[in-house]
Amino acid sequence: MATLEVLNQSGQKVAEMALNETLFTSEVKLHLIHEVVKMQLANRRAGTAATKNRSAVRGGGKKPWRQKGTGRARVGTIRSPLWKGGGVVFGPMPKDYSYKVPKKVRRGALRSAVILKVREGKLLIVDKFELQEAKTREFVKIMKDLSVREALIVLETRDEALERSSQNVPRIKILLIDGLNVYDIMRYDTLVMTRQAFEKLEGVLAQ
């Protein structure tokens, strides 16, 4: 039976956790990871790029010169797209890029991302974090003891001292287990989870 070491915040082994064999021996489906990451990035797009077309540009209500007899080309408005200061043809307009993939796809992608971290040896289980107060120096020491330079840290419940201690440390992000997502898992080199958070995640992935 496959197991994972459970460490304390000093990097010392304090226990072992048995992994769900059915769950963690399943196939890693990279195409699901790709699809969900693509969806997440699309959903983050603001979609606010905009240009003014001919009807939106101010001015141009009067015909510059009469239709015939001047020798010049006929023009109806100085705000024609052919003129400087005119409207833009086929320019970007505000757009909603967001879309959804099926729930099974999202869950399968999350499962594959976690399995991938386990197989790469990039998943660390920490028994618990104990910081008496918010000190960046203490947090940096914990990361050094765990041999981690950049990580996504996943907690079951909020830890204000840990969150404040990590604010000024680059390439570190703290999430609650309910907010765990495929993009952040793949973005950070190491996934660090508390034991309680990992047990909850196993329950969700096994569904």
Descriptive overview:
By secondary structure, the chain is α/β, with parallel strands linked by helices. The protein folds into two domains: 151 residues, Ribosomal protein L4/L1 (Ribosomal Protein L4, Chain: A, 3-Layer(aba) Sandwich); 50 residues, no CATH class. Strands 2-1-3-6-4-5 form a six-stranded mixed beta sheet. A hairpin with a 5-residue loop joins strand 1 and strand 2. Helix 2 packs across helix 3 and helix 4 crosses helix 5. The chain starts with a strand and ends with a helix. 20% of the residues are buried.
In short:
This protein has 7 helices and 6 strands; from the N terminus they run E-E-H-H-H-E-H-E-H-E-H-E-H. The chain is α/β, with parallel strands linked by helices and 207 residues long.
How would the blueprint of this fold be written?
Blueprint: E1 3-7, E2 13-18, H1 21-24, H2 30-44, H3 103-120, E3 123-126, H4 136-145, E4 151-155, H5 160-166, E5 172-176, H6 182-187, E6 190-194, H7 195-205
| Oligomer category | single chain
- Count every helix, treating DSSP H or I runs of 4 or more residues as helices: 7
Question: Can you summarize the main beta sheet?
Answer: 6 strands, mixed
Task: From the alpha carbons, calculate the radius of gyration and give it in angstroms.
Answer: 27 Å
Tell me the number of structural domains: 2
Which strands sit side by side, in order, in the main sheet?
2-1-3-6-4-5
CATH class of the largest domain: Alpha Beta
Q: Which structural class is indicated by helix and strand composition?
A: alpha/beta
- N-to-C series of helices and strands: EEHHHEHEHEHEH
**Name given to the CATH homologous superfamily of the largest domain:** Ribosomal protein L4/L1
Query: Terminal Cα separation, in Å?
Result: 20 Å
Task: Assign the CATH architecture of the largest domain.
Answer: 3-Layer(aba) Sandwich
Q: Shape, please?
A: elongated
CATH topology of the largest domain: Ribosomal Protein L4, Chain: A
* Portion in strands: 5-15%
Low-confidence stretches are none
Number of strands: 6
Q: Helix amount, in percent?
A: 25-40%
